[in-house]
Amino acid sequence: MNYTNELKAFPMGIDTHQELVVYMRDDCHLCRSEGFVASNRLNVSCGGRSIIAVLNVVYGGHIPHGHVGLSISALERLRVRPGTLLTIKHAPPIRSLASVRKKVFGHTLNGREIEAIINDVTAHRYSDIEIAAFLSVCAGGRLSLTEITDLTRAMVTSGERLDWGDGRRIYDKHCIGGLPGNRTTPLVVAICSAGGLVMPKTSSRAITSPAGTADTMDALTHVDLGVADIRRVVEEAGACLAWGGSMNLSPADDLLIRIERALELDGEGQLIASVLSKKIAAGSTHVLIDIPVGPTAKVRSQPEAERLQSLLVEVGAACGLSVRCVITDGQGPVGRGIGPVEEARDVLAVLQRADGAPADLRDRALELASHLFDMADGQGLEAGRERARLILEDGRAWAQFQRIVAAQGGLKTLPRALYTHEELAPRDGTVGAIDNRRLAKLAKLAGAPASKAAGLRLCVGLGDQVTAGQPLFQLFSESAGERDYALEYYTSEQPIFSLVSER
């Protein structure tokens, strides 16, 4: 056999998510002649297209001689058929990694350095380990205001940008997160777009929570909309509720979020750049941001919330975006459902004005909608809240939500979980505190958000009096193993529900 740097494509059928991976036999002539070893970065090219992929070495003859295995994502990006001849060589050095190392040692990065990092991340030149290193050195308040602004701009320019072209105000709403069940966005979008505000809302899937807005909406309708589809839906309904990852809007953000999810990391600078870059790329001009504060929320103190508020407003202004932040109560979960389907049930209950619809979710949505209406007409929060209340109570919000869903492909039937467990209160008492973080983890261990029907339904809330044997929550899972795993966590950890005895 001739010792060339060409091998035939062999699909491995291995899902490595967005990381590009190639596989070579341990006795492959290229491994020996080129000195390739596991974890090397390789340039793989064919027909004018190329990728940079991480090498895994395979023992045991699973790959035919003369072939190179490709992960699903590598095969898709190269767009080649099995057996296609590929050229393989060492990848060139990635110069922007020097800037990551510079940041490791505490130095400030300039705009060009940050842009180079984001361009290389977007081009899939960074391995997962290198992305993790960049995210880690950006966490913990290590980015200056200028660096966050430069990071935001770089993430916007890394992909497409929607331009609505007619000078209209385009509104958006975002929550920093940290409260299980806090699914106000579909309600706010329905209320405000029914009131005439244009809201092309794109949301992310969960990073560290049991459900993101896109996960919940995916249980209700189709959210994988391209740019053309978003334009059509907004033209038809005045708003959309789509998954941002299905478009090429700030694509670097989606690659970074994938690693943040694995690390359960949501650093301040990256959080701000992530939120604002998506809004700017979607063509928004005015954005309302909800910052819940509580001892077990993502933001734990008033000073921390005020710092985040200041940074969001300043970075937004530097990027031409009008940002208003609302600091809200983050003491406990919102609504009753936690997980995509259960949160969707709460959203529908509020919109349909059903008996027993969670009042706290409804009130929170009305408060946020009042701010958006005030941003639009300057009539004040009291007038904005009354306007929002009327739109919800007379059915216009529900009708508008149905228009949005119809334009996105119609309403889905919500699935039901295969396994249900009801947890009972061990004694009498008053619910004095609920640990948001442990509650979210419990729902995730039950399978949320990967299993849409998995999660929790709360039977009690903060301040409720309970008696021994009264249900605290229902747990939903798609397998007995996930149910048992979640319950083992619940019983082995510190109490999620703190019951205060009556004196």
Question: Mind explaining what this structure looks like?
Answer:
- With 503 residues, the chain is α/β, with parallel strands linked by helices.
- Helices cover 42% and strands 20% of the residues.
- It contains 18 helices and 18 strands.
- The protein has helices at residues 29-34, 72-78, 97-104, 111-122, 128-138, 145-157, 185-194, 213-220, 227-237, 251-263, 268-281, 302-318, 340-351, 359-377, 381-393, 396-407, 436-445, 480-492; strands spanning 6-11, 21-25, 41-46, 49-58, 67-70, 85-90, 171-175, 199-203, 239-243, 286-293, 322-329, 337-338, 419-424, 429-434, 455-458, 465-466, 471-477, 497-500.
- The protein has a 6-stranded mixed β-barrel. It has a 4-stranded antiparallel beta sheet with strand order 12-15-17-13.
- β3 (41-46) and β4 form a beta hairpin.
- α4 crosses α10 (251-263), α7 (185-194) packs across α16 (396-407) and α8 crosses α13 (340-351).
- The radius of gyration is 25 Å and the shape is globular.
- 50% of the residues are buried.
Question: In summary, what is this structure?
Answer:
With 503 residues, the chain is an alpha/beta fold. Helix content is 42%, strand content 20%.
Q: How do the helices and strands line up, and which of them pair or pack?
A:
Layout: E1 6-11, E2 21-25, H1 29-34, E3 41-46, E4 49-58, E5 67-70, H2 72-78, E6 85-90, H3 97-104, H4 111-122, H5 128-138, H6 145-157, E7 171-175, H7 185-194, E8 199-203, H8 213-220, H9 227-237, E9 239-243, H10 251-263, H11 268-281, E10 286-293, H12 302-318, E11 322-329, E12 337-338, H13 340-351, H14 359-377, H15 381-393, H16 396-407, E13 419-424, E14 429-434, H17 436-445, E15 455-458, E16 465-466, E17 471-477, H18 480-492, E18 497-500
Parallel strand pairs: 1-5, 2-4, 7-10, 8-9, 10-11
Antiparallel strand pairs: 1-6, 2-5, 3-4, 3-6, 12-15, 13-17, 14-16, 14-18, 15-17
Helix pairs in contact: 3-5, 4-6, 4-10, 5-10, 6-11, 6-12, 7-14, 7-16, 8-13, 9-16, 11-12, 14-15, 17-18
